[in-house]
Design brief:
Elements lengths: L11 E3 L11 H16 L3 E4 L13 H11 L4 E4 L2 E2 L5 H14 L4 E6 L6 H8 L8 H13 L22 E5 L2 H10 L2 E4 L8 H11 L11 E3 L2 E4 L3 H19 L9 H6 L4 H11 L2 E4 L1 H15 L2 H4 L6 E3 L7 H12 L15 H17 L6 H25 L4 E3 L2 H13 L7 E3 L2 E2 L2 H10 L8 E2 L5 H16 L6 H4 L7
Parallel strand pairs: 1-2, 2-3, 3-5, 4-5, 5-6, 6-7, 7-8, 9-10, 11-12, 12-13, 14-15
Helix pairs in contact: 1-2, 3-5, 6-7, 8-10, 13-14, 13-15, 13-16, 13-17, 15-16, 16-17
């Protein structure tokens, strides 16, 4: 099932399951392939789990896999689901995720858990008895202090997580009981509840988190992700066969004899004992199984019951910024010139019906604006002096959307000037920006180059031809469907008259 088949954004939590009859390392390559597919289908996030010494999964090095998946994709958010904090030094976690954020700005999530993710002996081997589960609050506070700073009298006061010019990614505390929600509320982070195996009632866990939530400098209001397990196929029979294979894998795990995930054929041929059938039935209550339509309905039931607003994402999945008229192009060119350091003649063009004299006048106006406002020294001041109210408003929309992880589709030279300003004010906002097409305005190509963006659509459109009016909604619709694939006018649903 893809996000286009449901009304709420969907994400993936991957454990790198080891398939029967194949090497364990093949699961790692499957994870990368799955991440690429999830991105192409429009999934919001791709999180990697941490488990150790379990023969059914290869998710033992989430940091390595996060870096690999992020490098192999370009738009989907990538993160940990989660880093089991008791297994790691808080400084190492803070440094690693700042490095990831520096390499992939605006695309990384940091999900943290307090469980070992393994058996007691393996946990001891990982930790050498250093940390107990109930030390999670102290470890979490220490992690934050490597970014925010320790008190003056603290022995770690001189220490900080490098690189220190990038923020710590958005924080989520994972939990399968009421404790996780209470911890997330106390620290003012997002809460990811493990609805696919959690011992607590999802509704109670989420309600407890919301009731106790204390706003923090990183999150102003509670945010919830609900973890679900789902198997969908074109037919109920095939979905049930796949689910039966998963049942057998889970039963073996509960019997402390985990191994590669069996095939549906192996599960069908298995001689099930009464105890195994009972264990399978207990686990099945966490899973949605059936056709895409059946699974969609059951996932919505689970989301509604739990009150998981992260899945709903406030009802917004994408914002489109359209052009605001040719009169703003000179302002946009001046702003682009100041932010990129390119000469005025390089960042402006003819648009529609502009002769040599008019083009020369545009360049002269831009040069004059840059001379008058040449004292601006930072992106905010440059935007205030050169951007004008309309473009400043566009930049504000991009910054606000980026703060909520909502992608923004920019349409043309003027809208992209606002996006460029937003990215210079907050580099992390770059990850939320999508370019719809390339206009023939020369400066638009310079803007896209500065942002490191390739347009979603292989269209070269002239200014002043109503591109925003004709293409805004069809482009949004096509962008949601195909994401970063190339599209023609026909793909976008634009008629010949509108062209």
């Amino acid at each position: 099932m893809t996000p286009s088949q449901t009304t709420v954004p969907l994400s993936v939590l991957d454990l790198s399951p080891i398939p029967s009859g194949r090497p364990a390392s093949s699961a790692l390559h499957d994870t990368v392939a799955l991440a690429k597919a999830a991105e192409s289908y429009g999934y919001r996030r791709f999180w990697l789990a941490e488990h150790h010494n379990i023969g059914s999964v290869a998710s033992s090095a989430p940091l390595v896999m996060i870096a690999t998946v992020a490098a192999a994709t370009s738009t989907i958010r990538v993160g940990s689901g989660g880093i089991m904090l008791p297994n790691h030094a808080p400084l190492a976690v803070a440094e690693s995720f700042r490095v990831l954020e520096g390499l992939h700005p605006g695309r990384i999530d940091l999900g943290l858990g307090r469980a070992p993710g393994t058996d007691q002996l393996t946990a001891y081997a990982l930790r050498r008895g250093r940390v107990e589960n109930d030390e999670f609050p102290q470890q979490f506070a220490e992690l934050l202090a490597y970014v925010d700073g320790f008190p003056d009298d603290h022995p770690f006061q001189p220490l900080r997580a490098i690189p220190d010019d990038v923020p710590l990614p958005p924080l989520w505390i994972l939990g399968s009981s009421l404790y996780g929600g209470h911890a997330a509320a106390a620290f003012g982070t997002g809460f990811a509840f493990a609805g696919h195996f959690g011992s607590a009632d999802p509704q109670e866990a989420v309600a407890g988190y919301r009731d106790r939530f204390e706003p923090s400098g990183r999150l102003a209001e509670p945010r919830v992700i609900l973890g679900v397990a789902a198997i969908a196929s074109d037919s109920e029979e095939r979905a049930e066969a796949l689910a039966r294979a998963n049942d057998l894998a889970m039963v073996r795990l509960m019997q402390n004899r985990p191994g590669p995930v069996p095939t549906p054929e192996e599960a069908a041929a298995h001689d099930w004992t009464e105890q195994e059938l009972q264990l399978a039935a207990q686990r099945r209550r966490f899973m949605s199984v059936g056709t895409p339509e059946q699974v969609r309905a059951d996932l919505e039931r689970r989301r509604t019951y739990a009150g998981a607003d992260e899945l709903a994402k406030d009802g917004v999945t994408l914002i489109g910024l359209g052009e605001m008229g040719i009169a703003n192009s000179t302002t946009a060119a001046a702003l682009t010139s100041a932010l990129t350091g390119r000469a005025p003649a390089e960042v402006t063009g003819r648009g529609t019906g502009i002769d040599d004299a008019t083009l020369g006048h545009k360049v002269e106006v831009i040069e004059r604006a840059l001379r008058i406002n040449g004292g601006a020294s930072d992106p905010v001041e440059i935007l205030a002096r050169l951007g004008g109210l309309e473009i400043a408003g566009l930049a504000g929309v991009v910054l606000g959307a980026a703060a909520r992880s909502i992608p923004v589709l920019t349409d043309g030279f003027i809208a992209t000037a606002g996006a460029l300003a937003a990215a210079r004010i907050c580099p992390a906002a770059t990850g939320s920006i999508l370019a719809s097409h390339r206009s023939v305005e020369i400066g638009h190509r310079i803007q896209l180059e500065a942002l490191g963006k390739q347009p979603l659509f292989d269209l070269d459109l002239r200014l002043g031809e109503g591109t925003g009016a004709a293409l805004a909604m069809p482009m949004v619709d096509a962008a949601v469907r195909i994401l970063r694939e190339m599209a023609s006018f026909e793909d976008a649903g634009v008629s010949g008259a509108e062209r």
